[in-house]
Amino acid sequence: MAQRRRRRPWRIALVLLVTLGLTIAAVNVVQSLVRLPSPPLVQRCLATDGSTSVALDPEQAAYAALISAIATERGLPARAVTIGLATAMQESRLANLDYGDRDSLGLFQQRPSQGWGTVEQVTDPVHATNAFYDALVRVPDYERLEVTVAAQEVQRSGFPDAYAQHEQLARLFASALTGHSPASVVCRLAEPDPATTAALPAMLSTRLARDLPSVSMVAAEADQLLGVEALVPDGGADSRDRLAWAVAQWAVATAHETGVSEVVVAGQRWVRSEGARAAWAPLPEGAVGADDPAGTVRVR
């Protein structure tokens, strides 16, 4: 019988060293992966109906909030907001443009030469939105028309069918921002800088005065309480609840500009610091705002 060769000690040591090296390398790779920084937050605002979500960037969402707020102040229906948002998306991608075809300018690409106002007026989002609604309400039975037909009656565009492609996005944001779909607009934003946080009351007051002048605001310790009673002449409870949600979701959609970090309404809360996980959720038991009366929105 042949004698079994003895395994040389240096070979065993080499195998152990190689195994140890591979193990250390694997551990280092895992640790490096764990230490990788989180990807930057993609800031956006979402509107959903439970099965479908659509998104705008924060600047677009703020203009959508303005277009909806002006309709609310004027007592216009959500359908008018849908038509307005679809039109502004097609004309400017919801941006206050200082250029356009020929002399077209602003959110709705209105032309001073066609009687929409001066250059300064059509590039003022409030004037431009009111001018759009002034024309829309003169369209007979506009609420029953297809969005693209109603928009074309106002705009007289060279691409009359183009508005239809934005109808779903416009409808979801309009339903949320008018309060018909509670807890359906969520913005996922980075934390505001300290200067913006410190200026919150002034920024919020300025934006309210522009968008929703009928909404009252009072300071309550660290919070700003927004009341919708002035918007509800009949005092109906259902209207107060709906308008409170309209104001609350307006506050979320404009938070990128105002610095709002938290919104509380009807026992629900949106918290900005949750970033990519931000969503409307029930208030914890005993939390401040849980017993607020109907028609109150708490902002901080």
Give the arrangement of secondary structure elements.
Layout: H1 9-35, E1 44-48, E2 53-56, H2 58-74, H3 78-92, H4 119-122, H5 125-136, H6 147-155, H7 167-177, E3 185-188, H8 194-198, H9 200-211, E4 216-220, E5 223-227, H10 237-253, H11 255-258, E6 262-265, E7 268-271, E8 281-282, E9 296-299
Antiparallel strand pairs: 1-2, 1-3, 4-5, 5-9, 6-7, 6-9, 7-8
Quick description:
By secondary structure, this protein is of the alpha+beta class. It contains eleven helices and nine strands. The strands form two sheets. Strands 4-5-9-6-7-8 form a six-stranded antiparallel β-sheet, covered by helices on one side. The chain has a three-stranded antiparallel β-sheet with strand order 2-1-3.
**How much helicity do the residues have?**
40-55%
Percent strand: 5-15%
Rg, alpha carbons: 27 Å
Overall morphology: globular
Give a short account of the largest sheet.
Answer: 6 strands, antiparallel
Number of domains: 2
The structure class reads alpha+beta
Number of helices: 11
- Order the strands across the largest sheet as they lie in space: 4-5-9-6-7-8
- The counted number of beta strands is 9
Q: Uncertain regions: pLDDT < 50 for 5+ in a row?
A: 1-5
Q: How would you spell out the order of helices and strands? A: HEEHHHHHHEHHEEHHEEEE
Average pLDDT for all residues: 89
Q: What is the CA–CA distance across the termini?
A: 89 Å
